[in-house]
Amino acid sequence: LPPARQSSAGALTGRGLLLIHGGQSPSDGSVFSDGWALDTTAPQWTWEARPVLAQLGARRDHSAVAVGDDGVLFLFGASLLSPA
Hints:
The structure is a single chain. It contains no helices and six strands. The protein has strands at 9-12, 17-21, 35-39, 47-49, 63-67, 71-75. By secondary structure, it is mostly beta strands. The termini are far apart.
């Protein structure tokens, strides 16, 4: 299960996969680089870590947009102290 976060980015693909990345911890202000997926078409919803999304680096206040049936584009945002 993803930890509590704010200022993250997420998008729902055409195939019903919700992908989220990054964000900021509401408790200590640290910026996340992790990614998570939720298959909204599955009978039981379960969050799964997506380690490949960590390659985007830690960022907050960024955007995400679904591209086609399977893709999500994450862009812009900021790291802890500067634009990403």
